Design the sequence.
């Protein structure tokens, strides 16, 4: 009989390691909560990196499972409500109804209202999509209070009933949690306490972006993090492999940091000349709320330009580690063959024209079909011919920072282009029919009100050439980056909200664009980024077939 999380039998608590460290039974978990729309990026890559180190980890996306569990468990309370939620889930997974704006929005609202009602009951910031109700997730930044709020909630019930019942907790030697946000961090700490209380014998590891941000405070707070056996403050699969080997040698430590990274491939543990063996959970079709899966994929770490003063990918802060493009295309082809995935988010910080051109060469040579989006920079080399070629090869959207329409500010940012260059590129994109999402930084230090007005004027002239614009408040989101102190915080620049309000005063803009948080997007498209990408991919496919027919 399966053991539940609350009552693992005592015999299983004795730690007996297998004869070879690579035979350790390792499980990787994405804890609640992440958006349940697409496979998480970190888990498959972490698992693939561990496989290259000789381990065979199992992956469990507890986050998506939690949402699906919530939607299904209601049937014991109300079949009518269960039917409504099931219909909504079915619409979001339906190949036609998903693309009917009314059906789509109704389905999303149904699920979100239900999730928020549960959030109210549990006093936890559950939400389907973080941008939907900002006030609901504000409190999620405090992982300490989140941990104490989790007792007696449905999240706890999920862990006891679902995790305890369905996962073979007694068989794992190592259980690792990857936390990218505060809620995931809190969930991991909460789960760890429950597992230890139940006597689960596995060595518990906690890492991820949220852990790096929490840093030593988290380590020192034994009440909170005492159930974790090893905390990873820096590093990923490389450190996890090391922990497994240390565990086998009887020398696993409580804290691992950057100086523990010792790997032979390159500085970042990022193989550049061979594809990752990416394996997704078998129940992939039942986990996510989209008709097609979008998978995030990297062609490089860091940025080939790497000079912008506000950016975490500035070379002072981060190396540039490019992979061979053929390796990227190998991975895409393998995901397509194994799981039918044809939508890819190339999540490099800067998929520059050289890489884009090599990518098109490779896709054309192999005659592959895929839809993809990427982030690049203002480059003169993004010519209409290259942009058209990218479009023909499935590029559905390009994300490119405008940041400001003032040469003085662009110089301070060390963006390496002028307003004239940005304008030329926007026109090139229009000519090539390439959808553009752009970013604007609001209130950059020393910015004057007149300079903000210049940017607004530029946007009024060009917004019809943009699919969407994201306005980013400098103070709120960027001030902690490398050069923040160099410019101070004095600014007369407008906030994101004021810039958006100002643009929407114009009737022609208001009739075609709608704001959602700091995002201004063409009407008729979803605000969920992965869903927006699927809408645009469908348009790309239809243009491709029209082009082929002409
Ligand atoms: S802002 Fe973009 S182009 Fe500039 S360094 Fe960062 S990733 Fe590179």
Sequence:
């Amino acid at each position: 009989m399966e053991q539940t999380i609350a009552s693992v039998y005592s015999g299983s608590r004795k730690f007996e390691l297998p004869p070879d460290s690579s035979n350790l039974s390792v499980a990787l978990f994405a804890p609640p909560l992440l958006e349940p729309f697409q496979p998480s990026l970190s888990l498959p890559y972490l698992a693939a990196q561990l496989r290259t180190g000789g381990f065979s980890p199992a992956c469990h996306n507890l986050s998506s499972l939690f949402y699906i569990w919530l939607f299904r468990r209601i049937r014991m309370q109300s079949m009518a409500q269960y039917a409504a939620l099931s219909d909504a889930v079915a619409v979001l997974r339906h190949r036609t109804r998903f693309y009917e704006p009314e059906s789509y929005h109704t389905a999303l609202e149904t699920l979100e209202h239900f999730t928020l009602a549960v959030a109210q009951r549990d006093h936890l910031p559950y939400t389907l999509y973080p941008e939907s109700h900002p006030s609901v997730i504000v409190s999620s930044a405090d992982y300490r209070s989140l941990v104490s709020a989790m007792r007696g909630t449905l999240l706890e019930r999920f862990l006891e009933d679902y995790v305890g019942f369905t996962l073979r907790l007694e068989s794992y030697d190592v259980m690792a949690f990857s936390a990218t946000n505060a809620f995931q961090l809190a969930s991991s700490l909460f789960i760890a306490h429950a597992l230890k209380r139940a006597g689960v014998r596995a060595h518990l590891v906690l890492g991820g972006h949220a852990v790096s941000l929490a840093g030593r405070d988290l380590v020192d707070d034994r009440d909170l993090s005492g159930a974790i056996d090893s905390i990873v403050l820096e590093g990923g699969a490389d450190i996890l492999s090391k922990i497994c080997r240390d565990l086998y040698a009887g020398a696993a430590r409580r804290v691992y940091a950057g100086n523990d990274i010792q790997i032979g491939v390159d500085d970042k543990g990022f193989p550049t000349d061979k594809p990752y063996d990416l394996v997704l959970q078998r129940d992939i079709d039942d986990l996510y709320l989209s008709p097609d899966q979008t998978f995030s994929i990297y062609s490089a770490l860091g940025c080939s330009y790497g000079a912008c003063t506000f950016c975490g990918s500035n070379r002072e802060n981060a190396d540039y580690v490019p992979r061979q493009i053929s390796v990227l295309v190998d991975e895409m082809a393998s995901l397509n063959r194994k799981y039918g995935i044809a939508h890819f988010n190339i999540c490099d910080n800067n998929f520059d024209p050289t890489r884009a051109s090599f990518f098109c060469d490779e896709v054309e040579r192999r005659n592959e079909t895929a839809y993809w989006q990427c982030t690049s920079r203002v480059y003169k080399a993004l010519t209409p011919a290259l942009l058209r070629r990218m479009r023909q090869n499935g590029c559905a959207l390009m994300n490119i920072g405008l940041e400001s329409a003032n040469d003085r500010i662009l110089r301070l940012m060390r963006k390496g282009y002028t307003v004239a260059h940005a304008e030329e590129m926007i026109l090139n994109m229009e000519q090539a029919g390439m959808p553009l999402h752009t970013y604007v930084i609001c209130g950059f230090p020393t910015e004057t009100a007149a300079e903000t007005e210049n940017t607004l004027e530029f946007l009024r002239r060009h917004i019809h050439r943009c699919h969407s614009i994201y306005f980013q408040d400098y103070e709120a989101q960027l001030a902690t980056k490398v050069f923040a102190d160099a410019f101070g915080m004095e600014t007369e620049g407008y906030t994101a909200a004021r810039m958006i309000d100002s643009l929407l005063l114009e009737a022609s803009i208001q009739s075609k664009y709608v704001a959602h948080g700091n995002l201004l997007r063409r009407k008729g498209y979803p605000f969920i980024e992965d869903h927006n990408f699927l809408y645009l991919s469908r348009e790309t496919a239809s243009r491709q077939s029209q082009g082929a027919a002409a």
Q: What stands out?
A: The chain has three domains: 20-63+145-258, 66-142, 292-540. Residues 303, 305-308, 311, 313-314, 349-350, 377, 401 surround iron/sulfur cluster (CB under 6 Å). The chain is about 45% helix and 15% strand.
